[in-house]
């Protein structure tokens, strides 16, 4: 069931440390920091020099990028595909919101 895959309350509160993201995805912390330096993903730091924490959207991007890299895409191409998908999702949800607001 969809409820088993998506918990809105959890998603809205989800902030996961870079170590946990690395453990769960298998992507080394060094690579996650590199992606952050390249502005591919963003983190929230608790304070200057503090622990990096990633939200649901960035964790989703990390997982999707990893899947595309595992399929043989270059990092540049994977990022482009993910950004296109995110743009499409944003546009679609914006249109849906507009339709709901008109009712």
Describe this structure in words.
By secondary structure, this protein is mainly α. The protein has a single domain (2-102), classed as Multidrug-efflux Transporter Regulator, Chain: A, Domain 2. Helix content is 68%, strand content 9%. It contains six helices and three strands. The protein has helices at 2-5, 8-13, 18-25, 29-37, 56-70, 75-102, and strands spanning 15-17, 44-45, 52-55. A hairpin with a 6-residue loop joins strand 2 (44-45) and strand 3 (52-55). The longest helix is centred in the last third of the chain and has 28 residues, at 75-102. The radius of gyration is 16 Å and the shape is globular.
CATH level-3 fold name: Multidrug-efflux Transporter Regulator, Chain: A, Domain 2
Q: Tell me the fraction of residues in β-strands, as a range.
A: 5-15%
Strand order of the largest sheet: 1-3-2
What does the main sheet amount to? 3 strands, antiparallel
Helical segment count:
6
Q: In which range does the helix fraction lie?
A: 55-70%
pLDDT under 50 segments (min length 5)? none
* Name given to the CATH architecture: Orthogonal Bundle
Kindly give the count of domains.
1
Topology as a string of helices (H) and strands (E): HHEHHEEHH
Work out the number of β strands: 3
Task: Quickly give the structural class.
Answer: mainly alpha
Q: Report Rg.
A: 16 Å
The chain-level mean pLDDT equals 86
C-alpha end-to-end distance = 29 Å
Based on Cα principal axes, name the global outline. globular
CATH class: Mainly Alpha
């Amino acid at each position: 069931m969809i409820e088993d895959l998506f918990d809105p309350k959890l998603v809205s509160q989800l902030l996961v440390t870079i170590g946990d993201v690395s453990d769960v995805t298998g992507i080394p912390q060094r690579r996650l920091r590199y992606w952050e330096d390249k502005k591919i993903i963003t983190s929230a730091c608790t304070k200057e020099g503090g622990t990096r924490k990633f939200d649901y959207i960035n964790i989703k991007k990390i997982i999707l990028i990893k899947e595309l890299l595992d399929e043989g895409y270059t990092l540049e191409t994977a990022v482009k595909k993910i950004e296109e998908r995110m743009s499409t999702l944003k546009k679609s949800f914006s249109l849906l919101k507009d339709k709901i607001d008109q009712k």
